[in-house]
Every structure is written in C-alpha cells, then in structure tokens.
Amino acid sequence: MENEAGALSRVAGLFSARGYNIESLTVAPTEDSSLSRMTLVTSGTDEIIEQITKQLNKLIDVVRLMDMTEGPHIEREMMLIKVRAQGEHRNELKRVSDIFRGRIIDVTDQSYTIEMTGAGDKLDAFVQALEPGLIIEVVRTGVSGIGRGDRSLKL
Amino acid sequence: MELTGADIFVRALQDEGVEFLFGYPGGAVLHIYDALYRQDKVNHILVRHEQAATHAADGYARSTGKPGVVLVTSGPGATNAVTGIATAYMDSIPMVVFTGQVPTHLIGNDAFQEADNIGITRPCVKHNFLVKDVTKLAETIKKAFYVATTGRPGPVVVDIPKDITAQKAEYHYPDKISIRSYNPVHIGHPGQVKRALSMMLDAKRPILYTGGGVILGNAAESLTALARALNFPVTNTLMGLGGYPATDPQFVGMLGMHGTYEANMAMHHCDVLIAVGARFDDRVTGNIEKFCPYAKIVHIDIDPASISKNVKVDIPIVGCVDNVLKAMLVELGNSTAQTDAGALKDWWQQIEEWRSRDCLKFDRDSDKIKPQYVIETLYKITHGDAFVTSDVGQHQMWAAQFYLFDKPRRWINSGGLGTMGFGLPAAMGVQFAHPDATVACITGEGSIQMCIQELSTCLQYSLPIKVINLNNGYLGMVRQWQEFFYQKRYAMSYMESLPDFVKLAESYGHVGMQITRPADVEGALIEAMKLKDRLVFMDFLTDPEENVYPMIPAGGGQNEMILI
After folding, report:
1. Which of the residues B122, B181, B310 would you substitute to probe the A interface, choosing the one with the greatest number of A C-beta atoms within 10 Å?
2. What pTM was estimated for this model as a whole?
3. Model ipTM?
4. What single string gives the DSSP state of each residue in chain A?
C-alpha cells in the first residue's frame, strides 16, 4: 500500500467498521520508499474473505492485494519471551529453547530473554511447552508472509 | 507567477468548472473567503448551517450529475458537515468537501476549532486528503474531483490547514490525473454479458430490478430500450425511481418494504432476476433467507464489492451499467435466440392479476386530508415534471409511491442513510441548478424542523421552492411502527408545541398557507404554483392515523406483505 500517513488507519478502520476480525497485522516500508507492505491475518467464511478482499481493494491506498492462503507461501513471526530462569529451570529452559531453535539474547541471574522466529503455531507450541508460572512477558510481532518460489506480490 | 494557497484553491475550482460552492465561513478558511471575494466565476452560496451546505451540494449533484462542492471551516464547521457527507456516501453521490484546518504547526494541539477531520470523516468518504504542502494543493484538488466522480461515485474530503492557504506556489492544474491503485472498470466482461443474456432469454418469469446505479450511471435510456426489447417487467428501488418511466405499463412500481404488491410478488416468484445498479439493501430484500427463492441472479454493478455482498449471485458483471446494458442490446441484436413469448405472456397475466389487487388504494371519501391525495394532486398539477426532494419517513414513501417519475434525476431523497433534514437544503441545490424548474420539497413537520433555518437562505437567493409539509402531528413512521409492533405505545412520536408554520414562513419572508380540508388541496396547490418567484410553504394538516401500505414487516419475505 501507499506509504502514507493514514493508510494504516484506513485498513484498521475498515475492519472495525465492518466487523471483521484482525488476528495480527504487521506493516513496514519496502525497498521502494513510496510503498509499505502489510501482512494481515484474518479469519472468516469464504464469503467474508471475499468481501474483505473486495473492500480492501476499494481503498485507494491499497495498491495490490494477495490472499497468501490461495497458494504456497511462507509465514514467519518473531517472538521475544522473557522467562523466569532460576535453579534447575535454567538448564531445562535452555534445552527447550534449543529444541525450538530459539536464541537466548539476554541473561540475568533471574531470567532469560529468548528470541524465536517461525510460523505462528510453532511459537504457540513453545509457549505451551513452558510451565505457565515461568513466563514473565511475551512480545510477538504478528505474522509476515511471502509467496513461495516465483509467486510474488510486486508492482 | 506564484499564487497563495487560497488563490490556487479558487483557480482550481474555476478550472474544474465549479459553478456553485456551498459553504459557511470561519477562521480557518478566511484566506480562501478573501480569494473568493476577489473573483466572480465561482458562486459561493451562504447557507445557515454546514449540514445544509452538504445537502444542497448533494441535491445539485443528484439533479445534474455534476459533483457538488462544499467549503466549511475547521472544527464544528467540519463536524456539522459530517451528516451530509455520510448521506452522500450511502447514496454514492459525487461530492468534494473542503474543510478548513488549524495551521499545520497546531495540528494535534487541541487548538481552537480543531477537530481530526480526516479521522472523523474516514468511514463516510470514498477517500480523503490532508494537504500538507502548498505545491501539492492543485494536484490534490484534481485528484479529489477525479476520485469523487469516477467509478462508483462518492464524497471526497480535502482538509486544508490555514497556513497552506497563505503560502505561495506556482499554479498548475493538471488536465488529467492517474492514481496507480485506482482503476475503475468500465466495460463489462463480454463473456459474462453473453452468458447473462442467454440466461435472460431462457427465462420464464424474469424481472429487472434496477437501482440508483442506473440514475448515477446515466443508463435510463439503455435500460428502457433493453426492457422494451425483451418485454420484461421492471421494478425500481427507492433510489432507482425515474430510471424507468413510471407511467410505462412494463413498470410494476417500487419494490421493498413499502413497494407494490405486484413488484414484491414478481420478485418472489421470478426465475431470473436481473439486478442493475442495485445493492440488495435490507429494505429491498426483506428476510434474506426468503429472498427470491426460485431465481437465478444476474448482477450488473460498477462496484465489485456490491456483488455477492448480501445475496450470492450466479452471473456477476462488473462495469458501468450503461456500457453493460448497451453491450446486451448489441448482443441481443446479433442473437438468433428469442425470449419465450408464451411464458412471458403467462407471466404478464400473473403480474396483472397481482396488480389488480390495487395495493396503493386509500380512502378517498375521508373528511381528513389524505397525504397520498396531496401527492397525487401535486403530480397532476405539475404534470409529473417537477423535481421532487423529500425528507425521511412516511411522506417519503408516499412521495415515492404516488409521484410517478418518468425521467431520471427528478426524485431526490436520502435513501441509504435516511437523513431527516435533507429535503429543504437539497431542494435549494436543485433549484440553483435548474432555476426555471418547479422544485417541490415533500416533507413532514418532524423532518422540516431539522433544517428549517434554510428558509433564510432561500430568501437570500430568491429560491421559489414549494414546500409541501404533510403535517400529521406525529413522527409518522415511528408512530406507524409503534402502532404495529409496540401495541400503540407512542413513545416520543408525538410533538407538542409545533410552530405556526404559516407565520414561521412569513417571518422568513415567504408565503405561508395552511390547508385543512381535502376540498382545498388542489386549489391551494394551483395557487402556490402560480407564485412562480416565491417560496411557498404549504402546511397540509393530514390524517394523523394514516399508515404507509403495503408493508413488509421486519423478518418477512417479499410475499409476506401487510396490505390494506
């Protein structure tokens, strides 16, 4: 979409005005400074998704739109998670984090901060795998998506 | 030569060919008003409330097809305009609204008369712009007119901070403009047109259901030609009236909640429904589960998002309705296939049987004035040739039922948003555009009071509007619903302390009349029409108990009407 003030609020406003659901939304400028790229995760019946697609296309700030789920694509999300890491938990947390290919990027004598990327369900699985009492804070970026192979969203 | 932003604004409007600018001055737009003062090409019309500026521009747009243009100040000027912008948005009316804004450095400071105009109007505009750079002002104005008038039309807001109107830049108004993400489709897909026509030719019980898109897309002629070539019945939505001649035998009347029995029954029983520039509004469909149960549906619309939004259609055609209908006519000319004349004969026989139910009948012997009779008489003495604006409620439905529109752009009402207060200011816009035409505003004592202050504007500009006030003392449509669905508990639908409308009109410098007996209705209307250069406010005291029939109650199907 156009990299302009207000473009994001037009999209967000459309979703709230029409009662559509936003599960996650990420947006940032691209290599072309006039364009931003937004990945938005939503849900609904085929009819609702069709309406969402059409309504988004009507927004003048939306330059091109692609439903990633119509073809092979890659989804990635990053999570930063701060966990209580004391005593016997320190080794266990390191091991679980390694299994999920997380990286410990900050350490104190009380805590670890782990960085992890992957599809949303992998991050969910990691959170599930931890003892709930150990989690201090979770920050997730929301999903970014890109088509596989030659499939691309370009002007 | 460099011009100030204010002069750029005025030059751009001149170059855009803007005749009328409806507005109201204020601090943030004073530079612009000064620039307007120094020229005489754009006529600024001073209203009495910003809502009326937008409705007047809207009436101008609906009756001419040209965009309506509005100028209001920041803060309350802009917020007052919002109702009119939303009204235009719901009915897809081309309009460009310029709002003043506090100087750039004060934006976000809670400055005097500051409001977030872009944020407030975002959900009810086709697009809006905040001008932050005077060198972009002319181009932004061009873009605003381009977006407002192309594709599915709609209102566009341009928010201009005060400092931008003082800064200078070279003036250049582009002839053409393109926006990379905005490319409305014009021509319908030829394959879809072919498929649709073949389905239509196979139909046994077809009906053309046509809406405001036919009016906005100037497609009345093509629609009439196609309907006649096929001998199909035609029904119009509230917004589509005038898109097909109402006096033509193929016209079965308006459809929907207060549509005719024949139109709704034909919809319910049809086997092929051809929707043209209509959007399957809830007031049309009734209960969506029961809507057109036997029909295959063709839907022609310029807006892909209107297609299969409420009702799943079988053959969608995206494009300008006029182009698509013309393509159908060409295709029909080339086709060897023909309509099923035998089936159509049976279908028409069935429709005539429904029509003979005479669903719009009313008591003609009553000693009270029946509102239907007033409109019928207005139709008769204006020879069906007036521009008719309305407000919202019972009078609006009666106007739609009893004034037969043979031409497009004659019936001006707020169908989508249902804005009370629309009628009088809209009539002003119509009268400015058509100074010699008869313009009647059909209203009620509830609606008229929502923009009554515009009687003052009408005097300033000598607008000879004929106000037909169907005064039943009640907010009639609310009262009707309370009678039917709330066991006659008339909560807040009765207005005490109504003004003396005759004196009120006179105090504004107009002619006031009060009509209390059925026998006086025709004479009074004739007398009022003779006063060609005066606004006449006609206060008809009508039967307070009268209801609008037929009616599809909420949740009902189109074949489940309450009839009198």
Report:
1. B181
2. 0.96
3. 0.92
4. -B--TTHHHHHHHHHHHTT---SEEEEEE-SSTTBEEEEEE----HHHHHHHHHHHHHSTT------GGGS-EEEEEEEEEEEE--TTHHHHHHHHHHHTT-EEEEE-SSEEEEEEEE-HHHHHHHHHHS-GGGEEEEEE---EEEESTT-----
